[in-house]
Amino acid sequence: MRNRYAIINLLTIIIFLSLAHKIQAQPTIAYTPVLSGLSSPVDAVFAPGDGRMFIAQQNGLIRIRNGSSFTNFININSVLTNPGGGEQGLLSLAFHPDYGSNRYFFVLYTGSTGAITLARYQRNLTDPNIADISSGQVLLSIAKPGNPYYTNHNGGKIIFGADGFLYISTGDGGSGGDPGNLSQNRTSLLGKMLRIDVNGFATAPPFYTIPATNPYASPVDGFADEIFSYGLRNPWRWSFDKQTGDFWIADVGQGLWEEINNATASRANGGNYGWRCFEGAHNYNTGGCTGIDSISPVSEYGHNGTTGGYSITGGYIYRGSVFPSLQGYYMAVDYITGHLWLVRNNGTNWQTYFQSLSNGGITNNVAGFAEGPTGELYAVSRGGGRIDSVIVTGTVPVIIQSFAAIAKNGFNQLSWHSSTEINLLQYGIEVSEDGVQFSPVKNITPNASRTYQFNHATLFRGNLFYRLAIENTDGSVQYSNVVKLKSGQAKPVLVYPTLTTKAGIINVEINEPVKEILLLNSNGQLINKKTFNLQQGILQITVPENASQGMYLLRVVNNQNKIYNEKIMVR
To answer: Going along 67-185, which residue ranges are E strands?
Structure first.
């Protein structure tokens, strides 16, 4: 049995290291809305061979993300128990690795009798937007204990591993304290990580087979063949590290502690996560637990609203490329408080970093996370009915004092000024048509004046959104506020600056051939005149040094003698 006092001391060291590191810089996380209007979403996955995001709602409706809207894929509401609340209803969704060719996907839900149920469905042969409800086949049904049965602690997330087998997390069956000690009972499928082979697509029982390398696959050991790991309380959300294949399991605690577990595939095979003997790194009910606790949590937090929470939601280890400073961090949040934790191994110790909900940018009632094809992460906001993109906002010590965008003829002019720039690598200008999905435009290197201007050539007519991606020398990124403008709606003639001084240069921007530009005082007297040989674009005229302060009229005459008048002020 592991030494719990040693674990507690280790966690103390971890907290100390975390605080020491926090003085430097670790990623600050925020959520950016991607899709709204959902009803209690609980899971979201990307379909291999399809590439789109599929969203599972608790009520049994699975929807396909279609830009900023969605398409209904299938509704299995009729087979669910209590799809409207609590811990029941549709729990998770997984697509077969060869979904693009075989069209099979799998769902985990609480069935009509409350049982934890795994079922298989198939997409329509000709329409990729519709699944065939008649193709439904229940593969596995795990009855719940209690009379009446307990409605809580159902697990459960389903994911295909790199080995092609389907992994299923189940809760301990419910109530409190695992009254039947089912998590430690290896004849029960409750409180476990299960692994089965569904690749035969059988149409008659048995609907799956047991991988030969399952730890209890032997027909004579008396244990359930489906078990891969045991000793879990309610592993609502777990994931694989797509780079290493490691398990990351967030296990919801009993009354005091929430825990995060990490294990390699070999260590997890037959491994025991400790419940109900232990809750997190602490004794809970150790009767009969000698020598069995093989996998200790790498991080935990206590039950409180200030620095902890009450119900953990596990996420993923970040393996994307958009936010280099987040690379290698595992993310988990608390469903109730919304607080967020980042966990990583520095090569020697596990480090945990805390982000309070009060820091802004994040929210509570996050039921899970989704991992995109390239490793970018999304938060599933059950309470908000949204899918949010996970972004990094706060690791760069740069303060933007002003940021503005002005529509011109054929381009939009961006200008900004920073009051502080420390360890700044570059500014990345990004543009969006909807204010959600941004695309890179240009990278700008820092200068000594900290004042910048960039002209974005575009023929787009309508609303455009701009932001600055501020990249630090360590690869971390934060974002400026977003500015919006009506692109392509500029006046025929643009004059700037409209407030100038004596001997100042006035720019005149026009996309028509110009004959001359006149500068008149308020009495209509000619102050300066410049003739052009039917030029267009950005033209200039100078305010005379002897000009007096006051209002002036700038008159532009085009090749057809059409006149444009603009006012300027000389101070």
So the answer is: 69-75, 90-95, 104-110, 116-123, 131-142, 158-160, 166-169
pTM above the 0.85 mark?
A: no
Whole-angstrom Cα distance, residue 492 to residue 471? Answer: 37
From first to last of the 571 residues of the chain, give the pLDDT tens digit.
444 434 434 443 333 333 323 333 578 899 989 999 999 999 999 999 999 999 999 999 999 998 888 999 999 999 998 776 789 999 999 999 999 999 999 999 999 889 999 999 999 999 999 999 999 999 999 999 999 999 999 998 999 999 999 999 999 999 999 999 999 999 999 999 999 999 999 999 999 999 999 999 999 999 999 999 999 999 999 999 999 999 999 999 999 999 999 999 999 999 999 999 999 999 999 887 865 668 999 999 999 999 999 999 999 999 999 888 899 999 999 999 999 999 999 887 898 988 889 877 899 999 999 999 999 999 999 999 999 999 988 654 567 778 888 888 778 899 999 877 777 889 999 998 877 778 899 999 999 899 999 999 887 778 888 989 888 776 666 777 788 888 765 567 778 788 888 888 898 888 788 999 999 998 889 999 999 888 888 889 999 988 888 889 999 998 888 898 988 988 8
Give 4-392's CATH code, choosing from 3.40.50.1400, 2.120.10.30, 3.40.50.360, 3.10.410.10: 2.120.10.30
Q: 470 exposed, middle or buried (CB, 10 Å; 0-12, 13-18, 19+)?
A: buried
Nearest to 74 by CA among 119, 126, 140, 122: 122
Q: Which CATH class is domain 493-570?
A: mainly beta
